[in-house]
Amino acid sequence: MTTATPSAPPAPTTTTTVASRIRDRSLRTPNKVAMREKNYGVWQEVTWAEYWDTAMTAAHALLALGVEPGDRVAVHSENRREWLYSDIATVAVRAMTVGLYPTNPAPEVAYLLSHSGAKILIAEDQEQVDKALEVLDDLPDLEHIVYLEPRGIRRRYDNQKLMFWDDFCDIGKRHREEHHGAVEERMSQAKPDDVMTLVYTSGTTGPPKGAMLTVSNVEFCIQELVEGGGFTSPPPSDADIMLSYLPLCHVAERIFTTWFNASAGVQVNFAESIATVQPNLTEIQPSVLFGVPRIWEKVLAGVNIKLASASLIKRTNARFWLRVADRLGDKLVRNGGEHTIGTRLVYAVGWLFLFRALRDRIGMRKVRYAASGAAPIAPEVLKFYMGIGVPMHEVYGMTENTAIATANFPGRVKLGTVGEPQKGIELKIDETTGEIMTRHAGVFAGYWRNTEATAKTIDPDGWLHTGDVGVWVDGTHVKIVDRMKDIIITAGGKNVSPSEIENALKASEFIKEAIVIGDRRPYLTALIGIELDTVGEWAQRRGIAYTTYRDLSEREEVIKLVQGVVDHVNERFAQVETIKKFQMLPKELDHEDGELTATQKVKRSAMADRFDDVVESMYGKAGVS
Amino acid sequence: MTETSTRFKSRTKRPSGRPELYTSYSQHLRMLNTRPKFVSVTAIVAVAALLPWVFDDQTLSLLGLGLAASIGAIGLNLVTGYAGQVSLGHAFFLAIGAYTAAALSGDPEDNELIGFGVTNVVVWLLAAGLVAAFFGVIVAPLATRLRGLYLAIVTLGLVFIGEHIFKEWPELTGGPGVGRPGPVPELFGVGLNTPGDFLTAEQKLYLLMLVTLIIFALLARNLVRSKVGRAFAAIRDRDIAAEVIGVNLTRYKVLAFAVSSFFAGVAGALLYTITGFIEPSSFNLLLSVQYIAMVLIGGVATISGSILGAMFITLIPALTRQLPNVAPFISGDATKAFNVFQLETVLYGLLIIGFLIFEPRGLFGIWIRIRNYWKAWPFTY
To answer: Is A394 helix (H, G, I), strand (E, B) or coil?
Structure first.
């Protein structure tokens, strides 16, 4: 903790929390829309008054169930209204919210719930309830499981700990009548160093660690990003509309959904599911859009597939204007993302022929600020969006510094960098190791129940060691080289950043996963996983028959296709950084199988074990397998 | 869930420029649910309302005929296109409407023809519709017993019975070869078929047709997107299945015929207001076929398609009558071997065949195709 918390008297303090912000907004603009969720084909609206009212009821219910300050309340659900109600209620009663990824398998659920010691679990449906019940014996702290969808659970499951959300709310309502003002009283006791949430990092190595974010961390984040305009310019307001579709347990989505909503009144719209993001985007047409690289790559791949199968006139038109967009993107990149009169004119013509319709179809017609973060992305992908007129910005941050590190500011974009340090923070790059370090009020309070890891991450001077290697570009912008532990040192002693090569490969619409290998090896090799949709479509157009993913991957034509992509990428890199050999992954990587983290990042250690024989075969020692 | 169906109403204005963001079912169901739709419909109506000051009187009366025929075509489309009950008897219902209106508004002093002197257009228009609907209800029970081809034959019989009666009842129709004057339109004491201070007779009649068409088109559009319309569609798609899901077949078939005949009655009354003369032998099979052609060419089960089809069929003669000037082997004289009237008949047949094969959704289908092409831009699907 770097914030100095004066030992103020515990009497009515006015610590601003996310909960108090929502209360204030519900008083200021009770009838404006806070969020929407699509149910039965209609986007149902929740006003600020209703939002606060439901959150209050939930908070009373938590009090009635005996939640004390500092207790943990876990939420295991897709993004939906109840996620926010539970989160806000938890903050209001000074407990900590622990988010679980909906894709977490039972063993991980067991680890997260037992490690956090959650007292109450809000589980979405039968699937999530089953995961918890499976490991219930290992969870002595868990007292109640509140489920949101009764289907398959109510009157079927006989467990004393289970409780339906409506019953939970009834408890809250009764408590609210009997103990009027109990929640307000608890809220008034809130302190800046209250831990309000545990954000479990995805854990590409070892088990996930729970980063403790305090009220003051989050307030600092809000000041920087919302009030200070750290991302968008002008700052977000209640006229902005966004789509919430990435897991809320991740700090990035929490910022854009919960905190932007609470602090700036941005209207949140919950996507029906991750599978319907594209149609939901076209319906909502958000004005602020955050995405992880995978999403941006997938939308781009979708555009390419659809264009490839469009009729001749449409295809020719689109090809032409996309080439123009490419040149526009180049110019914008040189100009920091700002238009000149020339580019504006060209864009206006292209707008009539392609860009308007294309942006409308992919749901980005109204986007005034788009951001990519949470993982590295290939610059070509960003350039595509800039070219068609979506103001795209790469940003950088991590859970441990409440996502406050660097951002490309509108008009000062440098492609390939993660931007400039946020205003009023300290950021330095270690001269010997090249590690990026930050120091500001958003630096987290430490890892939950893991002082050893905390000590390794925050040094005594308060500097957060991010674990990312970076370099300065033009003295203002930061370029991330790679994760420190991922950097490859070849047998020849050269340092190679695999993620740069991997992203260049993944920029192709045909490649979904690329894992570059070569640590202590004579040359670089890669494991490549194809994108089933695009390659399948490509194969179909060429009349190549296939049955499964593996079958398709191993087709000669497909290997040739991938070889083409690899050769193309190799041209752009130095000799030591070229991929000499590659092998196709025989299966799609999956979270459940332990190959990916919940945020779809590749677990390199797991890959090395699982595909050991494939890797060895590329270095000519395959005989044994 | 805490939400119930009472929550499906929107309490706030939805964010602008997001036509697919529906926050309530009423937005979803609105007839002009997008701005382009609203703008284009308003523009079309505005242009149509300004035409009387653009075209000469002859063209206007032709367009007026097209508008009146549109009402009849919508009527036929309701029963045949939406409810799937093939009817070749549409000419009969047109005749009922025409004669009801003519008799009501006819001169009571006339000793040879029935006449009651009720010239108020609203009164005789409604009466024409109601009497036709009454006959529709009488005929409808046949439809509950018969299907497809059999129903077509029976309704065909209706045309022949009608033709016979109209020939043999000179007090009403004036008899074959003689005929009687068409209905006399008057509204609030203003004669609509006589030149006035500001407008000519044709201009007034055109506007009367336009207003009536708008009213009836709206009625039909709202009918087909209601419970009744869905019942019609269910019967068309599979009557047994419709019955299984609780559609009362008898009731809805009778309703379909009644509404359709009402529209036909109104259309008949208006058509002969413009021509000003009713010849009993004109209500023959060819007239029914013309209306079938309107529906098929315009677009089955579409309201705007019916209007397109009716305008198209009405305007064909205006074009074919020019042919003798260009192609001398076609005669303009009805007594010669190959004349324009025969050509028109052949043309109806060819058009029906052509549309059924190449564009089963009719003129409206062509529009849909164009719209989808641009809607999907820059993709194909």
So the answer is: strand
Written in H, E and C, the secondary structure of A538-588 is HHHHCCCCCCCHHHHHCCHHHHHHHHHHHHHHHCCCCHHHCEEEEEECCCC
Q: CA-CA-CA-CA torsion for B185, B188, B192, B195, nearest 10 degrees?
A: 140
Q: What's the pLDDT tens digit per position in A302-335?
A: 999 899 889 999 999 999 999 999 999 999 988 8
Using a CB–CB cut-off of 8 Å, the residues of A that contact B are 31-33, 36, 39-45, 47, 54, 165-166, 169, 241, 267, 282-285, 306-307, 309-311, 314, 317-318, 354, 357-358, 361, 365-366
Chain B partners of A36 at a C-beta cutoff of 8 Å?
23
Chain B residue nearest residue A282, CA to CA = B20
Which chain A positions have a beta carbon within 8 Å of B380's beta carbon?
306, 309-311, 314
Q: Are A43 and B8 within 8 A, CB to CB?
A: no
Q: Please report residues of A whose CB lies closer than 8 A to that of B370.
A: none
Residue A551 — pLDDT band, cuts 50, 70, 90? very high
Domain extents for chain A? Answer: 14-25+48-190, 275-482, 487-624
Find the mean pLDDT for residues A98-126: 94
Contact A536, A546 (CB under 8 A): yes
Counted domains in chain B: 1
Count of residues in chain B: 381
Among A42, A307, A317, the residue with its CB nearest the CB of B23 is A42
pLDDT bucket at B348, cuts 50 / 70 / 90: confident
Taking phi first (over 0 means left), then psi (-120 to 50 degrees means alpha), and beta for anything else, what does residue A70 get?
left
Sign of CA dihedral B109, B110, B113, B117: negative
* Domain A275-482, CATH number (from 2.60.120.10, 3.30.70.270, 3.40.50.12780, 3.40.1080.10): 3.40.50.12780
Supply the pTM of this predicted model: 0.87
Q: Do B18 and A284 touch (CB under 8 A)?
A: yes
Q: Which CATH class is domain A487-624?
A: alpha beta
pLDDT at residue B317, as a whole number: 87
Who contacts A557 (Cβ-Cβ below 8 Å, separation ≥6)?
A539, A542, A544
Domain membership flag for residue B38: no
Cβ of A361 within 8 Å of Cβ of B11? The answer is: no
A361 min Cα distance to partner chain B (Å): 8
A14-25+48-190 CATH = 3.40.50.980
Q: How far is CA B348 from each of CA A460, A550, B78, B245, B355, rounded to the nearest angstrom?
A: 93, 59, 21, 39, 10
Determine whether the interchain pair B22/A40 forms a contact, defined as Cβ–Cβ distance below 8 Å: no
| Cβ partners under 8 Å of residue A625, min gap 6 | A612, A613, A616, A617
Q: Is B378 within 8 Å of A314 when comparing Cβ atoms?
A: yes
Q: Nearest Cβ partner of A241 from B15, B22, B24?
A: B15
